[in-house]
Structure formats: C-alpha cells, structure tokens
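Thread: "does anyone have the structure for this chain?"

Original post by V.I.:
We have the sequence but no experimental structure in hand. Need at least a predicted one for the grant figures.
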Amino acid sequence: DVQLVESGGGSAQAGGSLRLSCAIIGYTYRTYCVAWFRQAAGKEREVVATLIGDGSTTYADSVKGRFIISQDNAKITLYLQMNSLKAEDTAMYYCAARRSGGECYHNASWFVDWGQGTQVTVS
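Reply from O.Q.:
Generated one for you, tokens below.
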C-alpha cells in the first residue's frame, strides 16, 4: 500500500525556518511527480512546490526564494525547507504524489496519493 506520512510541522516566529518531511512508502513507479500543498483556514488548497523525477522543480510565486523542495537520493523522503517564514504561511501542509510520464500539474485534483497533513503556524 502507498503511504505518505508528513512530519516536521509546528510553530515558528516570523523570519524563522521549519523543515517538513514526507516519507513516501510503497511507491514503486520509476517516474512520479511529488508536491507540497497547503490549505489555510477558509481557503482552497494551493500548490506550494512540485518536483519530478529529472529534478525539475516549480514554486508558487508566494514562496519563491524562501522555500526549497527536495528529495533524498533514495527517493524515500520528500522535504520542504521553509525559510523567512511569514504569518501568511500559516496553513496545514500536505505532501502529494502521482505516477507520471514526465508531467507534473499544479491542480490538487490531479494528485492521487496524499499525506494526512502537518500544521504550520507562524506568528
């Protein structure tokens, strides 16, 4: 069975840093797209960053230059390094994945597998 398990959320002060982790268990596909999404209270889920097998990444404009998405060499763990945090980064953060032939979309509905979410609060 496929499982995505996030960790690393918590509270931080504005200007601080947090690193989120997502353990990807049971993914045997050679190529897949992984992403971080977030959903603030009362708002729709939005993409934060995506990463695909060749290492290509994309970022939402709101986090460019502050957040970094990466994956370990074994492709077992996905990370989101969040620097220069702002109050507006407060949200539930989710990792997501989907088997892919090289494409990686920003729509939450395109992704198949999701983690349970981890809360990030910036004050």
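V.I.: this helps a lot. The two ends are 37 Å apart (CA to CA).
O.Q.: and The chain has a mean pLDDT of 94.
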